[in-house]
Write a structure and sequence with these properties.
Number of helices: 11
Shape: globular
Order of helices and strands: HHHHHHEEEEEEEHEEHHHH
Strand order of the largest sheet: 2-3-7-6
CATH topology of the largest domain: Butyryl-CoA Dehydrogenase, subunit A, domain 3
Number of strands: 9
Number of domains: 3
Helix content: 40-55%
Radius of gyration: 21 Å
CATH superfamily of the largest domain: Butyryl-CoA Dehydrogenase, subunit A, domain 3
CATH architecture of the largest domain: Up-down Bundle
Largest sheet: 4 strands, antiparallel
Length: 370
């Protein structure tokens, strides 16, 4: 942390407490945040924090994205899909887009004019990206896209979607490319989920969608799989940052509850079991924080490798689920009531071990490096 990051933290905290935290129930009911929230976030400079200023971004680093994610967790929000918009979609454009593509799309993402999404998963292909069936076949100066995607964060609101498709179906990974689609998408239902109730997670359908050849990310076919593999460590680190922040918040709200709630004539915190369980949870939080912070430092210097990012994702999400479950137990019956933040955190936590690559896939990646 430095003075610049401290100032960002204060800006993020003020914005989230005013524009996001009070509206959690409404976001959950409508299954998405207000579209205007993106514009307001862009107006105060909270979108695309780690994108260079020349493309409309904040000119910061991954550390700036991490601060915003931490503050989002601190207010208990799991609805706003900014980490996908700013931390993932914008970085595909920055890393692989042509100069024309970057200047065309990044300022729109940074201002909130566009909401970004990336369409990887399909009904029959999740972690196995080589198994995707969506095709983008070239016809003259256009690609014709056909296929369907599911579990797409920001799916129903997205104005720009990076679509993972096969431009050469006869090839495996070498036949995958990334194409940018603007608005011309048939959107399915916003999905009913166990948790993340306010997050816009939708189905997308591509029925002979035509995009210009200039929408091929990077301008060269067959680079999609490599591009995906290069960006996945940052995606997994984003999940790790959100997870450790979630652990810390769970401990904080549970500590407050156990010091306020009484049973058998004394505070819950004064029972040895309560103190010992919270001691374990606080230790899990501290150990996970130390590891994730080390990974952030490595990422800032360009030295975070794929296996270490997989370790961070697996460890932090696994610990999140364990700690939140322990905290629910300390809340007793109230821990199962959705009006309490710990119950919502428990429901939100479970998917962290699945998306961004399942934790079983993370262990396979780690094992290959041993």
């Amino acid at each position: 942390m430095d003075e610049d990051l401290d100032q960002l933290r204060q800006l993020a905290r003020t914005f989230l407490e005013k524009e996001v935290a009070p509206h959690q129930e409404r976001f959950a009911a409508q299954k998405q945040v207000d579209r205007d929230l993106w514009r307001r976030a862009g107006d105060v400079g909270l979108l695309c924090l780690s994108i260079p200023e020349e493309y409309g971004g904040g000119g910061g680093t991954f550390a700036h994205e991490a601060v915003l994610i931490e503050e989002q967790a601190r207010v208990g929000d799991s609805s706003w899909g900014n980490s996908v918009h700013s931390g993932i979609v914008a970085h595909y454009l920055l890393s692989y887009g042509t100069e024309e593509q970057k200047r065309r799309w990044l300022p729109k993402l940074a201002s909130g004019e566009y909401v970004g999404a990336i369409a990887m998963s399909e009904p029959g292909a999740g972690s196995d990206l080589q198994g995707i069936r969506t095709r983008a076949l070239r016809e003259g100066d256009e690609y014709v896209i056909n296929g369907s995607k599911t579990f797409i964060t920001n799916g129903s609101q997205a104005d720009l979607v990076i679509v993972v498709a096969k431009t050469d179906p006869s090839e495996g990974a070498a036949g995958i490319s990334l194409l940018v689609v603007e608005n011309d998408i048939r959107r399915g239902r916003v999905l009913e989920k166990v948790g993340l109730k306010g997050q816009d997670t939708a189905e997308l359908f591509f029925d002979d969608v035509r995009v210009p050849v200039s929408h091929l990310l990077g301008g060269q076919e067959g680079q999609g799989f490599v591009q995906l593999m290069q960006q996945l460590p940052q995606e997994r680190l984003l999940i790790a940052v959100a997870s450790v922040a979630g652990i810390e918040r769970a401990v904080e709200v549970t500590l407050e509850y156990t010091k306020d709630r009484t049973a058998f004539g004394k505070e819950l915190f004064k029972f040895q079991n309560t103190r010992f369980k919270l001691a374990e949870c606080a230790t899990e939080a501290a150990v996970t924080r130390a590891f994730v912070d080390e990974c952030i430092e490595k990422h800032l210097t360009g030295s975070l490798d794929v296996p270490t990012a997989a370790m961070a994702k697996w460890w932090s999400t696994d610990r999140l689920c364990r700690v939140v479950d322990e905290c629910v137990q300390l809340f007793g019956g109230y821990g199962y009531m959705t009006e309490y933040p710990i119950a919502r955190a428990w429901a939100d936590a479970r998917v962290q071990r699945i998306y961004g690559g399942t934790n079983e896939i993370m262990k396979e990646i780690i094992a290959r490096s041993l």
